Amino acid sequence: MGQSAAGLLERLRLRSDPRTDRAWLESGIADHKKARPLGALRAWKKASALGSVEADYRIGLLYLRGEGVARSVPDAVAWFQRAGTAGHREAQYQLGCIYLSGSNTGPHGSADWFETALQRNNEAAQQTLRTLFPNGIVVDKDLDEAMRWITAAAMAGNTEAQSLLGDMYRHGLGCEQDYVHAYLWYSLAATESVASAQFGLGDLHYQGLGVEVDHVLAAELYDKAARNGDERAQVALASMYLVGEGGPANPSEAARLFAQAAERGEPRGQYRVALMLLDSDGLPANVDRAESYLRSAAKQDYLPAIIRLAELYSRGDGATPDLREAANWYTRAAELGHAQSQFIIGTLYATGNGVPINLRESARWFLRAAQQGHSAAAHNVAVYYANGSAGDRDLTMAVKWFERAAAQGIVASQVRLGKLYAAGKGAACDLDLAAHWLEKAAETGDPEAKMALAMLHLQGQESGRDAAQAKTLLKQAAEVGHAAAAMHLGHFYAGKYSDESNAADALHWYTKAAEAGNAVAQHALGMLYLNGRAIPQNLDIAAMWIEKAARNDNVNAQFQLGVMYCTGQGMPKDPAQALTWYEPAARRGHALAQYNLAVMLSKGQGCEPDHANALSWLQEAAAHGLKQARDTVRKMSSDVPKGSPETGTRPAP
Q: Contact 429/421 with Cβ under 8 angstroms?
């Protein structure tokens, strides 16, 4: 008991002797200067026990920097609060900075450990946390606390705090946005030559925030801040020199300032220097140096640098293109939320350029871009839904995204949307809406829209039918090379859509479309020459066009070519070749082709007899409603069906 009393008296005596805590403080300072942080920590803890506020602050710095102790921002906060509460303005400033951003990095990965422990045993994890880390492992962002401590430090005369307080008022961090207060605090710190305050004050004048726009004064303030080493001011002043704001243009001085900022690691400076090196603008061209600066800025997540670096690798710009590297940087820009990069990376995944083809990834990036209002991405999302390219086909969702893209002026979406409304797919049939979107697209001169609108006039409800307008629209589209429009115009003049017919015009437009590769027109043209009704018959020309159409997968042409080989009309009679063309038409559901194929198989014409296969094709034809096939199936048992290939019925052009 006596010893305890004696010890207490000794501690009280030490606390009453100001020289003692000062001595321990200075001893710690000496150890710290000699790179002995543990010695400094021991000395400062003794000084702290004796009431040294400065020692509390310095211990906080050790924990903040991880010198002699495991880095722990929560422990640093605990020591800074002791000093800050006692009025230590530097500690108050440090507290404000920490609360402004927060810190989720605990000592030695303790945050990760805690998350893992929580999943196993929540109560035990909490108990261990309190025991091992009494001050916690994270510091939450708290703008109110940041404002409280920064204000205290600023009021106490800390010039860095005054400048930071100006920033907080300017941006409304922990307070209402207030340019007047921002101006006052910037001004106070700027009188002490604080570079960040000079820059902030210059920015207020440059942008006219709470004051009149004054580019001359802004340039003067930027210059002061730049001379005091503020990289942001160097970039801002260089940008003004580049375009002659606040004074005469001075590209060489702009280049010097950009380079100065770039060398200090300022990403905007690095980006601007890179552009000058790529464009030979104020600096000699140097792609390698430009790439180096762009990469450095991109690694700091400066978005313009990331995008330009991706473009550099994509296009080459004096070097060999590297699509894989381009894809990496476009992906980073996309992850940062850049809609155009999201669209580009979606396109790369769709085409397999720089990345493996992956339509699901493509759809994911198109969707992210579309959700930000990227119109082309919205169209692609709609197409993916309409085609089922990256999942289940969903025409309702397709209509939704086509509507978004169409509203933003994507003509292809307007056309697709008009067709869907006309067909009643993905939405209720609405011919008025169909006409609205097709007319909107047609106004841009789009030939596909004109053709679709023409078909609406030809095939829609009676009230909306307008053959004359349809002909005009088809002709406009056909005259600019739209093959399908030319084909439909041929149909129009052949009398398929109206009473108007003109064999010469039909021949002209069928020929235009056929020469452009339109299979329907090739078949129709061939049938015109084959039938010889409206124009002189020419079996050679007929055979040529019908064969072209058949090879272009036109099912009617495949059937007709089979007929021609079977009968020897326009082609050498060749049953084997007839079978060759009947079969693909039959597989695609052409009932007459199925019937003729069955008859030839049953008789062994052009092949060995195959009664089982013949019966199968007869049943297919019967299922498609062909009377001859139904009758034959009823009569058949195990005998070969009697009859001959059907050649008398030919589809009209």
A: yes
**CATH among 3.30.565.10, 1.25.40.10, 3.30.460.10, 3.20.110.10 for 517-635:** 1.25.40.10
Contact assessment for residue 474 and residue 451, using Cβ atoms and an 8 Å cutoff: yes
Are 412 and 452 in contact, with CB atoms under 8 Å apart? no
The total of other beta-carbon atoms located within 10 Å of residue 365's CB is 27
What CA–CA distance (Å, rounded) separates 329 from 309?
Answer: 7
Helix, strand, coil share of the chain (percent; to 5): 70, 0, 30
Joined together, the tokens standing for residue 469 give: 């307008």
Cα 395 to Cα 384: distance, rounded to the nearest angstrom: 10
Sign of the CA dihedral 497, 498, 501, 505? negative
Instruction: Reduce the DSSP state of residue 139 to 3 states and report it.
Output: strand
Cα distance between residue 225 and residue 236, in whole Å: 10
pTM, 2 dp: 0.78
Q: Which two tokens stand for residue 147?
A: 């404002």
Tokens, residue 545: 């066009």
Q: For residues 39 and 571, what is the distance between their CA atoms, to the nearest angstrom?
A: 105
Question: Looking at residue 127, what is its pLDDT?
Answer: 64
CB neighbour list of residue 431: distance below 8 Å, 6 or more residues apart? 421, 422, 456, 460, 461, 464
Domain ranges of the chain: 517-635
Indicate the DSSP class of residue 245.
-
Whole-angstrom distance, CA of residue 328 vs CA of residue 113: 31
- The Cα–Cα gap between 503 and 472 comes to 18
Lowest mean pLDDT among 12-16, 349-353, 501-505, 560-564: 12-16
By CB neighbour count within 10 A (0-12 exposed, 13-18 middle, 19+ buried), where does 128 fall?
A: middle
User: What is the Cβ-side half-sphere exposure of residue 195, based on CA atoms within 13 angstroms?
Assistant: 11
Select from 494, 499, 503, 543 the least CA-distant residue to 523.
543
| Element housing 117 (H / E) | helix 110-120
Question: Tell me, what's the pLDDT at 8?
Answer: 53
End-to-end CA distance of the chain: 120
Torsion angle of the four alpha carbons 376, 382, 387, 388, in this order, in degrees rounded to the nearest 10: 120
